Amino acid sequence: MPEGRGTGSAIVICPGGGYAHLALDYEGAQVAQWLNSIGVAAFVLQYRLGPRYHHPIELGDAQRAIRTVRAKAAQYRVLPDRIGIMAFPPAATWHPPPPPISIPATRWPPTPSTAFPAAPISPCWPTP
Q1: Which of 17, 72, 81, 83 has an alpha carbon 20 to 30 Å from 108's alpha carbon atom?
Q2: Would you list the domain boundaries of the chain?
Q3: Beta-ladder partners of 41
Q4: Which residues lie across from 43 on neighbouring strands?
Q5: For the segment 26-81, what is each residue's pLDDT rounded down to a tens digit?
């Protein structure tokens, strides 16, 4: 975010694409541009897909993205406790997130401060 324009908030965007490709333009770049226009830092995640990769690898990619943004919060001019995630189908089924999967432990938690499932289909995990 340009200095003085940001709200301190950030969103990691997980574009949908039916497990075969990512809709990086209309569910990624366009959403990121809109979020930027209202002062929210946005990061479009290019997570791993099938057929080579399978669930829960994409969840690990999302958790790592959240950790990365938190670790570099000062550089990105965001607050580490104001980092959320926006997920489009099928990524919208990942949230609310389950307990962290096996990722090397760091001091930065992998769970988002808030989650925005865009047009979610039935979730993989029950809401706590």
Answers
A1: 17
A2: 13-117
A3: 10
A4: 12
A5: 999 999 999 999 999 999 999 998 788 887 788 889 889 999 999 999 999 999 88
Q: 3-state class of 91 per DSSP?
A: helix
Q: Identify the three-state secondary structure at position 95.
A: coil
Domain 13-117 has CATH 3.40.225.10: no
Query: Would you state the structure tokens that stand for residue 118, as one six-digit string?
Result: 């865009």
- With b meaning 16 or more CB within 10 Å and e meaning fewer, what string describes 89-101? bbbbbbbebeeee
Q: Residue 88: its pLDDT value, please?
A: 85
End-to-end CA distance of the chain: 33
- Look at the block and give the residue holding tokens 């949230």: 95
Q: Which of 49, 128, 43, 127 is nearest to 90 (CA)?
A: 49
Q: Hey, which residues does 87 pair with through a beta bridge? A: 14, 117
Structure tokens at 44: 């479009």
pTM of the model: 0.79
Half-sphere exposure of 75 (CA within 13 A, CB side): 5
Q: What is the pLDDT of residue 100?
A: 43
| Distance from C-alpha of 7 to C-alpha of 16, rounded to nearest angstrom | 26
